[in-house]
Design brief:
Layout lengths: L10 H17 L1 H18 L1 H4 L31 H37 L1 H16 L2 H12 L3 H27 L3 H8 L4 H37 L10 H10 L9 H26 L31 E11 L5 E12 L4 E5 L6 H9 L6 E10 L2 E2 L5 H7 L4 E4 L13 H12 L4 H14 L5 H6 L7 H13 L5 E5 L7 H18 L2 E6 L2 H7 L2 E6 L2 E7 H6 L4 H8 L14 H7 L1
Parallel strand pairs: 3-8, 3-9, 6-7, 7-8
Antiparallel strand pairs: 1-2, 1-4, 4-5, 9-10
Helix pairs in contact: 1-11, 2-4, 2-11, 4-5, 4-7, 4-9, 4-10, 5-7, 6-7, 7-9, 8-9, 9-10, 9-11, 10-11, 14-15, 15-17, 17-18
Length: 593
């Protein structure tokens, strides 16, 4: 079992991943060179008191414009100050000020962008308005005004600059998160019981980190250049040693000692270039693990509004829906109702099929039970009881407590519901560690057992793979294993075989039937395939235009349908139609005629 620990997202794998990122970074020549250059610059600046021949303000007019010597390797400036000392101490102020600006921009822009993009709502509107207002301000004018009011200390100006560039991070992060939040794998993480904080930290930040790294390099270069420009124009701190102040002093004496321009200009150019190159190489190293497909906007759940339940009729103890209506907001502030007062029950150990054509409201019903209705949708009336608890109108955190342990979800399109940035083992173990409180080793062992349970060959290898390295049928088995990982009582399967070929469909149906029999699961199977209903379901509910038009034992409904819509669905099945004659070329058909 010693190898098991290496299969999940534990410390061993995290260390391996970090080494892998560093290895890829160092293999990139530009990344390696820029990393070494920046490391040397930062180290030299940090050790300025030890490396500098003298203080940055120590002057000797008798040594003005003196050339390089053993005591002064880069010579002296117009005031007889050591150039190397001023470069090292000036780097402290220049790089430190840039780091301060970036830190303020990150602290203000990234968290607010994550929150606004993930939750939207009033905060999103207010924060976007503030960001647009700040971005409309002319940065140079604001900095000049700040200098007049707050003084010429370069650190104060860099703080102001941090506030001015924070909206760039906000808008970038908000836009990315708004696209990603509806991804199927984010919904899958929510249904598995992970909190929003863990979902954002684990799944959303992986998408945001690449652009943020590039933006950090650009903003740092902007801060360095802007600070140097202000100092060059004489707007900065004056006597404070910075690279921009050195440029200003050198420009004033360019006729007498043009080489004075070389050293601060070289430091500025190398630092800015190395920052951009390192950020690009680091982004590439981080994103090289898995080819992430383009984000495809999909659904995201919203909390439903409190509604009054209808407790009429005998109700199933596992899942009982009465009078459920689902409505979506229109742009004109009215609502469009897509599900119209349906009743549905699922009992322990029972498989209930919810069947109907596309757009009939099947998935909306399933999402209502899961609490993950898309944006703008809400339960407008009715009652949903899951394991004895009324969930219609519950806040998101109460829904979250039921997911994974009480109700689990198997979606369609298996490849879209696995995060391409993480291994299979990482995605299986994370919900178990969070919901069940298992250790890394325990979660890894349970993940292996789950993969064996769903008949995946060589599970140790599969746990190490990324989603793009497995087939669609195997991905669907992984999702079923993930749904079963926290021992749910109710399994909601939404078209679990739609994206699979016929042979794999049969295997997945056999797997669901076996799991249901072994564990006494209640299963709500959303499908449009009557063959699946006949093969798997105990009871069936037929849905059309947002209403359930017929319900009953699967055998009875399929053999003796009562509703005209059910009969039309059955008539669309071509099992009894004679086979099409063999294809013949047009010429052969013409000759026969």
């Amino acid at each position: 079992m010693s190898g098991i620990v290496e299969l999940d997202a534990g410390a061993g794998v995290v260390a391996v991943r970090r080494r892998g990122v560093l290895r890829r970074l160092l293999r990139n020549p530009l990344g390696a060179v820029s990393l070494v250059l920046l490391a040397l610059l930062v180290l030299a600046v940090a050790l300025a008191p030890l490396l500098a021949p003298q203080g940055p303000q120590t002057a000797s007019l008798g040594d003005a414009f003196a050339g390089a010597s053993g005591a002064h390797p880069l010579g002296m400036d117009s005031a007889g100050r050591d150039i190397l000392s001023r470069l090292l101490y000036g780097g402290r102020n220049t790089l430190g000020g840039a780091a301060l600006s970036v830190a303020i921009a990150l602290l203000l822009g990234v968290p607010s962008g994550l929150y606004a993009g993930y939750y939207a709502g009033a905060f999103d509107s207010a924060a976007t308005w503030v960001a647009n207002l700040v971005m409309a301000l002319p940065a140079m004018v604001v900095l000049l005004a700040s200098r007049a009011i707050l003084g010429s200390d370069p650190w104060v100006l860099m703080i102001v600059l941090g506030f001015l560039v924070a909206p760039q991070f906000f808008r970038m992060v908000r836009g990315i998160v708004a696209d990603v939040r509806g991804e199927a794998y984010v919904d899958a993480a929510r249904v598995s019981g992970l909190s929003d904080t863990r979902i954002v930290a684990r799944h959303v930040l992986t998408v945001v980190r690449g652009p943020v790294i590039i933006q950090v390099a650009l903003v740092a270069g902007l801060a360095i250049g802007l600070q140097a420009g202000l100092e060059f124009l004489g707007v900065g701190g004056g006597s404070t040693a910075t690279w921009g102040a050195m440029l200003n002093e050198a420009f004033q004496n360019i006729q007498r000692a043009p080489i004075l321009m070389l050293w601060p200009g070289l430091a500025l150019g190398l630092t800015s270039g190395a920052l951009v190159l390192l950020a690009t190489a680091l982004r590439d190293a981080l994103e090289d693990r898995a080819g992430t497909p383009p984000a495809r906007p999909r659904r995201r759940g919203t909390a439903t509004a409190p509604v009054a339940g209808d407790a009429g009729g005998d109700r199933a103890e596992l899942l009982s829906i009465r009078g459920l209506a689902v409505a979506y907001a229109r742009p004109d502030s009215t609502e469009a109702e897509v599900v119209h007062g349906i009743d549905l029950d699922v009992r322990p150990g029972e498989i209930v099929g919810l069947v109907g054509e596309s757009g009939s409201g099947k998935t909306q019903t399933a999402f209502s039970a899961l609490g993950i209705l898309p944006d703008g949708g809400r339960v407008s009336r009715g009652s949903i009881i899951v394991a004895g608890q009324e969930i219609a109108g519950l806040p998101e955190r109460r829904h979250r407590a039921l997911r994974g342990t009480t109700v689990a979800y198997v979606p369609q399109e298996p490849m879209s519901n696995l995060d391409p940035a993480f291994t299979i083992g990482s995605q299986l173990t994370e919900p178990m560690r969070h919901v069940l409180g298992l250790s890394r080793r325990q979660a890894a062992e349970r993940a292996l057992d789950l993969l064996r349970m769903v008949d995946i060959p060589d599970p140790e290898q599969v746990l190490r793979r990324y989603p793009h390295q497995i087939s669609g049928g195997m991905a669907q088995r992984v999702l079923i294993a993930g749904a079963m990982s926290c021992d749910p009582e109710l399994l909601i399967a939404d078209e679990p075989t739609t994206a699979l070929d016929v042979r794999v469909q049969a295997e997945i149906l056999d797997l669901l039937r076996r799991l249901q029999a072994e564990r006494g699961l209640g299963v709500l199977l959303v499908t449009h395939n009557l063959g699946v209903v006949a093969d798997l379901c105990d009871r069936v509910a037929v849905m059309s235009a947002g209403r359930i038009v017929e319900t009953g034992a699967a055998d009875r409904v399929l053999r003796d349908p009562q509703d005209p819509y059910t009969r039309r669905l059955l008539d669309a099945v071509l099992d009894d139609v004679p086979a099409r004659p063999p294809w013949r070329p047009v010429e052969a058909r013409s000759e026969t005629a």
